[in-house]
């Protein structure tokens, strides 16, 4: 009896096109995963609030505590640095990290160098301000600070 050979059932080698499609699919899935994670953690990555008492809360310059409320009811805090005869009025929004206790000295320099009345304020979740920072929230906070500063100094809000 003669031996019969059974044909091999090996899978055919993948073509360049199918390899490229699998690679592109994995690359796209990784990209979408990264974008999804960035969207979920966006505000944690963007805002770095320093809460009270972190910072120098008894500075060596003259200031007034400023308290005001955003449109949604969030209570906010800042330091108003008056000038006897201001030539300018400055709203100092300190950015995405720290608090007024850390940025107040910069406001004090603005007051003296620019002969300005300055309001340095904390967004929600920063320093002594209530709440947690969000993109829409900090915009509302800036509007509330602008309104407070305009009322305090007697200048138009624009």
CATH fold annotation of the largest domain: Rossmann fold
Strand content: 15-25%
Q: Separation of termini?
A: 103 Å
Q: What characterizes the major β-sheet?
A: 4 strands, mixed
Give a verbal description of the structure:
With 158 residues, this protein is an alpha/beta fold. The protein folds into two domains: 17-46; 48-153, Alpha/Beta hydrolase fold, catalytic domain (Rossmann fold, 3-Layer(aba) Sandwich). It is built from four helices and six strands. A hairpin with a 5-residue loop joins β2 and β3 (75-81).
Features of the shown structure:
40% helix; 6 strands; 158 residues; 2 domains; single chain; alpha/beta
Strand-helix topology:
Elements lengths: L15 H25 L1 H5 L1 E2 L14 E6 L5 E7 L6 E6 L3 E2 L1 H14 L2 E6 L13 H19 L5
Parallel strand pairs: 1-5, 4-6
Antiparallel strand pairs: 2-3, 3-6
